[in-house]
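Bug report (template v2)

What were you trying to do?
Predict the complex of my protein with uridine-5'-diphosphate.

What happened?
Run completed; filing so the output is reviewed.

Input:
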Amino acid sequence: MDLPQHVLVVPSPAQGHVKPFMKLAYNLAYHGIKVTFANSEFVEAKILGAMSEADKEQCPIRLVSYSDGLEACPAEERNGARLIASLKEVMPKNLEKLIEQINQSDNKEPITCVIGDLTVGWTLEVARKMGLKQVAVWPAGPASLALALRIPQLIETGVIDENGSTMKNELICLSEEIPVWNSWELTWISPGKPALQKILFDFSLAINQVVKNPIIVLCNTYYELDSSSCAMIPGILPIGPLPAISNLNPCSGSFLSQDSTCLSWLDKQPPNSVIYIAFGSTAMFSQKQFDELALGLELSGHSFLWVVRPNIVTGSSHEHYPDNFLEKIASRGKIVEWAPQEKVLAHSSISCFFSHCGWNSTMEGVSNGVPFLCWPYVWDQFDNKKYICEMWKVGLGLDYDEDGIISRHEIKTKIHNLVTNDGMKMNARKLMEDAKKSVSHGGGSYENFKSLVKYLGA
Ligand code: UDP
């Protein structure tokens, strides 16, 4: 007799990975698949701490955890090269042990398949070694995966060296329909951090080993959004943007508690009037840049909702706003530490999204038809900005001044240019309609998701 299928979902232990993986897991559970979700112990404590009791009660998946080997490491040092090294050396063995334990205690419904994060390809290697089915998830845009798959050829032709740096500052072009990469925009480039860059580059290179064997690669996109990159990726299955499941909180998986007071504040604002400013889970600012951003928002004269994470200013334990800033903006500005971002973007009072262009934020903005102001700072964010501004024409970038700062005047001007640009608003609405079609009955992502559910054996 065939054993029932039981899927273990394993993201990389970072906010921008855990949250979309959780959404995927919820969608699979909703379609009748038995899902267990494996976090590092550190991440699990964070997401349980941020979930409401109701969210925990309604959670349709089982949460389990395993050690990342960094118990002795202070929270603020769990990043960069140290975390990533542990990801590679300690976590694969611990994941294997976890699967063995689950299968011993749950021998009627052992894990039969691992849905693993392709950025940490060892999740899939562990599954392969243990004879389990494997499905990969690429948690960024398809262009960055197409780039990673081109690395062996770029090394062979001498365009990049074995550390991922370009030899001659060449532009990297995969096809005429895909924006080119400048040498400083490659996904793994980490200015001033050569050890981190080498690790990120090796991770990108290692992806080639995983996709060498036929494997399904799930991606949070829809085909038409970037058909050229999708066409370059063997096994790709675009399933995005995954819908929120009614009754369940689509934002489970957050590391910080969401401050929902911003939703009632938004209810009181006129339609299409509020700028939403959020830079994801890792972007940080110098105090000077933070001040210019605050003063730019003040100068703009617009209402705004600004996510200011704890420790968002480098080297400072709490935020210092410019003198009298909080008093001056009190009647038209709201600041929160962490927002229910998807609900915010879906709110009718939001006029545009001032974003760092992380892939999840990009897809959440696209799904809700909001134009973007783009402020990318690392990794694939430069690439996502090019799609937003040049390919889809739904956003504007900001220019740095000669001191390497984005000035308050630049911010004020670009906000004005964006909110008065009806063409971009129309383009953004069109993208939202396309996204909706794709996940509706008969659409590409809808059909792909159905075939995934069938493959997983519901
Ligand atoms: N997010 C959120 N509340 C916030 C800011 C961000 O829930 O106040 C979520 C956002 O909806 C997205 C994720 O955090 O799903 C950030 O992922 P993204 O890829 O955009 O950026 P990263 O954090 O990986 O840089």
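What did the reviewer find?
The pocket of uridine-5'-diphosphate is lined by residues 15-16, 19, 251, 254, 278, 280-282, 307, 338-339, 341-342, 358-361, 364 (CB under 6 Å). The first strand starts at residue 6 and ends at 10.
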